[in-house]
Amino acid sequence: MYIRESLKRVRVQMIIKVASESDYADLRHIYLESRRKSFHWANKEEMALEDFDKHTVDEHILLAEEDSRILGFASVYLPEDFIHHLFVHPDFAGKGVGGQLLKASIEKMNKPIKLKCVSENHKAMKFYENNGWKKVVEEGKSEERYWVMVYE
Q1: Cβ-Cβ contacts under 8 Å for 3 (sequence gap 6 or more)
Q2: HSE-up of residue 87 (Cα within 13 Å, Cβ side)
Q3: 78: Cα separation from own chain's centroid
Q4: Predicted confidence (pLDDT) per residue in 75-107, tens digit
Q5: What dotted CATH number matches 15-151?
Q6: For the whole model, what pTM was predicted?
Q7: Domain ranges in the chain?
């Protein structure tokens, strides 16, 4: 007689936690890969792994992790209640990671919270608007226009 066993994959919950120095190597790669894939308006050749360190100085960094794999991160500048970066590894885009990071970031700050979103980044703009953010004003030079957005 043949007995068939059903094996279920245990689903580990995504967790949001504060990043540590040991996470930075993975975060650098996520930042680089995400920008190279989605920033069609930018010069991909000018992007480098070191950009993460330069662009997140003095920021509080949260990361999303599942099964010990980092899925994405948000960096916030707490003194100004400002979300500076929110990036999800391209393999996990559209799976709720960004929403969880956004929610956790909002919980760390006082309202109103601000961010800037590049005008050409239509996908991100829609994401923020769908999560309750409002466009306030468009600023910047013609090739580098961005929207200041607010969450109240």
Answers
A1: none
A2: 24
A3: 16
A4: 999 999 999 999 999 889 888 999 999 999 999
A5: 3.40.630.30
A6: 0.87
A7: 15-151
